[in-house]
Amino acid sequence: MNYRGHGIALFSGGLDSSLAILLVMKQNIRVTALSFVTHFGCDFSDRSSCSRDPYPVARQFGFEVKLVHLAEQFVEIVRNPKYGHGKNMNPCIDCRILMLREAKKFMELVGADFIFTGEVVGQRPMSQYKPQLHVVERDAGLKGKLVRPLSARLLPPTEPELSGLLDRDRLENISGRSRRRQMELAAQFGLTDYPNPAGGCLLTDVGYSRRLKDLLYHCPKVDFRDLNLLRVGRHFRLDDRCKVIVGRNEAENIEIEKLRRPEDLMFEARETGSPLVLLVGTPDEAAIRLAAGITARYCDLKRAADVNITYGRNEADIQMIAVPPAEDLLLETIRL
Ligand code: SF4
Predict the structure, then answer these.
(1) Are 168 and 254 in a shared domain?
(2) pLDDT band at residue 126 using 50, 70 and 90 as cut-offs
(3) Is the pLDDT of residue 44 over 60?
(4) Which of ligand 1's atoms lies nearest the C-alpha of 200?
(5) Is 10 in the pocket of ligand 1 (CB under 6 A)?
(6) Domain around 315
(7) For ligand 1, is residue 78 a contact (CB within 6 Å)?
(8) Shared-domain flag, residues 41 and 172
């Protein structure tokens, strides 16, 4: 096929980024879509709220999708974002800049002409107000090369529009939170399978953000096992050196077992129904006793005066301790 040019899309699998791609493809432009994967779930890999499996729409309309994992550099941005966090730990502006910088490298590598996104002016509080859109474009080093097809006619013309590669009149002028025009466009394109608009990745979740903040505060160097543990169970900070994770059901117990490292202590009330409880860090005797008390509190003998709790790093290292269940009042104060 003889294309007029090549555009690189930021693609979440949601309605807006899908429509942006379809608007650009309609102008006989080849599209390569980049889907970004992070440890915080705003990607199709775990079907979290703001993204979904991108492939059905790509298959339906015939464009190529490439995955890009942002890995450690994204964690650093979450820890210390230049433009700050949103309501929770979400550094949306820095996140967009990072994604666009990666997209720029890819554009240069493959010799594409421009980058585009499904952003809509005024739609999201932190990253999609007009001044922020300019900041993002500037900091990503994409001045003039970043097109927002859904709001293009409300923004200054970009290089591909000025050169005639893209017909500005066939791009949109959508702004704000209403999705009415997007629905119309979806119907025109025959795009029926798209997700409801959503709030964002795990970093927009209050509870997850609280646990993450605690982790970043206590660990100068975060590893991905610890990040993955934040998604599972009840978390309790025992002291500066250790914390406890309690499985809430069978599935979480299995997950905790998988994420366990040889140096972690595992607690269990083997004489009754019990959660798996993981103690991460370097505990002293008081912390071990408290972790045992927490295990007792969440096992089926939580009203007993004392419960026998087994703990150890492996079966060869098992020890037993009899403790009363931890008081709810105390747990409230140390729960993350
Ligand atoms: S919600 Fe914000 S921080 Fe999370 S992936 Fe989306 S833009 Fe990035």
Answers:
(1) no
(2) low
(3) no
(4) 1
(5) no
(6) 232-334
(7) no
(8) yes
Which of 90, 97, 100, 101 most suits a substitution to test ligand 1, by most atoms within 8 Å of the C-beta?
Answer: 90
Nearest CA among 246, 247, 244, 237 for reference residue 217 = 237
- Judge if the beta carbon of residue 97 lies within 6 A of ligand 1: no
Cβ of 331 below 6 Å from ligand 1: no
Q: Whose CA is nearest to atom 6 of ligand 1?
A: 200
The count of domains in the chain is 2
For residue 70, which amino acid is it? L
Residue 218 lies inside a defined structural domain of this protein: no
Task: Give 89 Cα–ligand 1 centroid separation in angstroms.
Answer: 10
Residues with Cβ within 8 Å of residue 302, at least 6 apart in sequence: 296, 325
In this structure, the residue with its CA closest to atom 1 of ligand 1 is: 200
Would the CB of 123 count as within 6 Å of ligand 1? no
Nearest protein Cα to ligand 1, atom 4:
201
Answer with the one of 178, 201, 224 that is the final residue of a domain: 201
Q: What is the DSSP string of 233-290?
A: SEEEEEETTEEEEE--SHHHHHHHHHH--TTSEEEE-TTS----EEEEE---HHHHHH
Chain CA centroid to CA 53, Å: 14
Q: What band does 46 get if pLDDT is binned at 50, 70 and 90?
A: very low
Q: How many angstroms separate the alpha carbon of residue 270 from the centre of ligand 1?
A: 42
Over the stretch 306-332, which tens digit does the pLDDT of each residue have? 999 999 999 998 999 999 999 999 999
Asked if 176 and 242 sit in the same domain, the reply is no
Q: pTM here?
A: 0.86
b/e sequence 222-231, b meaning 16+ C-beta within 10 Å: beeebbebbb
Distance 204 CA to ligand 1 centre (A): 8
The angle at the Cα of 228, spanning 104 to 74, to the nearest 5 degrees, equals 20
Q: Do residues 74 and 169 both lie within one domain?
A: yes
d(CA 21, CA 7): 9
